[in-house]
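does this look right to u?? magnesium ion version
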Amino acid sequence: MTLFETRELTKRFGGLTAVDEASVRVESGELVGLVGPNGAGKTTLFDCVTGFLEPTAGEVVFDGVDVTGDAPEAVAREGLVRTFQHSRPLGTLTVRENVMAAARGHPGESAVGALAQGESVRDRERVVRERADRLLERFDLDGLADAYAGRLSGGERKLLEIARSLMLDPELLMLDEPYAGISGETVAEVSAYIRELNDEGTTFVVIEHGLESLVELVDRLIVLNEGAVLADGPAEEVVRDERVVNVYTGQPIET
Ligand SMILES: Nc1ncnc2c1ncn2[C@@H]1O[C@H](COP(=O)(O)OP(=O)(O)OP(=O)(O)O)[C@@H](O)[C@H]1O
Ligand SMILES: [Mg+2]
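got this back:
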């Protein structure tokens, strides 16, 4: 079943076309990589589908619902949630408070859906806190729950960002460069969590800059170049596609 689709999605900034009639489709349960060189339009595409930017043209359909131009909160309520390339945890809040804050502005979200109408703010706060603590345990951040988020390492921030997004119970989670600024062991750790969540049913689109880095992780790679979809298919095939290789090595594309 198709969970997510863009139809000829376009975003222009003045004379610059950042996303150029991009049509992509994600099936329910898939783990898809979205790659492309610097400035290819990956983040802008995420911004347009999650309500952070208004697309210039085209459509975004999620779970059979046209969400084109909907506000971020409305899109998240449908189950489409994203993380940010440059995540900024609130340094003056603790790690737990950061995770709890993700549920704010989403009254009645599934994170707190156990609450019947009329229950008190305190009950809601308790449910949110318990949920946050379970997520912190899951990502092995429970020992840091009371530390200020500003103190976290790069890898811990990436995990915090994922924990925050899970407070909204996403059906599709879009991660913008979850590996940026982290290395070695932490990369493997983040991959293991993504795989585990995917096995449990969360659909993923993961942005990465590099071509080879997601091959082991994803079912499928979509390559964006100058805002347009250049290739889309099984990862092992896409990384060998001559046109894709040319984009990465700076060779001209023959058309
Ligand atoms: N708010 C904006 N105003 C004007 N131009 C923008 C804006 N945001 C992005 N751009 C331009 O749109 C193009 C696509 O940028 P985008 O950030 O989406 O690329 P990206 O694929 O995410 O790149 P990176 O790998 O560096 O994160 C770039 O040329 C960028 O300079
Ligand atoms: Mg980007």
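The longest strand covers residues 2-13. idk if thats expected tbh
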